[in-house]
Amino acid sequence: MLLKQRRDVDCTWLAEVFAEYDKYCRKFVGKPLKECRAVEIGFGARPFRFFFLLTMGVDVYGVDLDAPLIKMSLSDLNGIRKNNGLERAVKSFARWLVVQRKQYEELARFCAKHSDRDIRSFDDIIVRAQGRLIVSDAGSKEFWSRFNEPLQFIYSEDVFEHLPPDTLDCVLQRIWEHLAPTGVAMIRPCIFSGITGGHQLEWYAYRLVDRAITRRSEPWDHLRQNRFPANTYLNRLLRRDYRAKFSQRFDIVEEVVLLPDLGREYFAPSIAEELGQYPDEELFSNQVLFVLKRK
Asked: Which of 57, 78, 109, 267 is 20 to 30 A from residue 35's alpha carbon, by CA?
């Protein structure tokens, strides 16, 4: 999979992400994304969105429990091993050797083409990001206390499904406290009941079109036998659960399914009967964007 990613390094999706974020900022905040103070919750091991927004002139910070491997060093790898275990360190090292260096090089070239900043290499991006990628609990007051003024834009992609319900409630409270009255939050979790909700690589959206691959599990195995549990924590929240939690503090001004009907071709009658307790809204949601405004 890493070798395939190395062959197909493509950063054009970042321009699409920026355009989407900018659209919602203009529509609900009343100003372009570049004029908003922003926070990304859960920037992940490769914070491409964060880096692109930063080079495009957005005043953005990011928070994640784990530090990303941005430059290869023994000390950084050892830190990952201590904090996240040997398996995570080995995966990080393999990803760096095979694909990540090339991805960062391409990212720098892509940012240089789209930004009016002077970006000559990935090192220039690292310098700009200094002190902005914060390793912390997104629900902690310590992280949010650095923002003395309200934020206009808060976003999170494929993160909320990994938060325990109590932690998620705490994060939502912090967002409510620090989001400007005119601000907007864009939260896009992966819904557990969708075909991608079990976080099995063989059922990820980009692999569903490949009928030639051999899959060890059946569609929606995580809702059925669950023979191959994900190697990560999942809170198992459904779309209606997120809707209920968000509605406690926010108005949901838009709710958009990223890929409607994803996996429909695998939904055999026998599976439909077995999963009869789940409505189609849950089984075919997968990634859902919730656009939130403070009540």
From this structure: 109
Confirm if 160 and 233 have CB atoms less than 8 A apart: no
Contact criterion met (CB below 8 Å) for 99 and 76:
no
Please report the pLDDT score of residue 2 as a whole number: 46
Question: What is the pLDDT at residue 7?
Answer: 53
Residue stretches of the chain with pLDDT short of 50: 2-3, 6
Say how far apart CA 106 and CA 5 lie, in whole Å.
Answer: 12
- What predicted TM-score, i.e. pTM, was given to this entire model? 0.92
Residue 6 has what pLDDT?
A: 45
C-alpha pair distances (Å), 133 with each of 43, 152, 162, 198: 8, 18, 19, 28
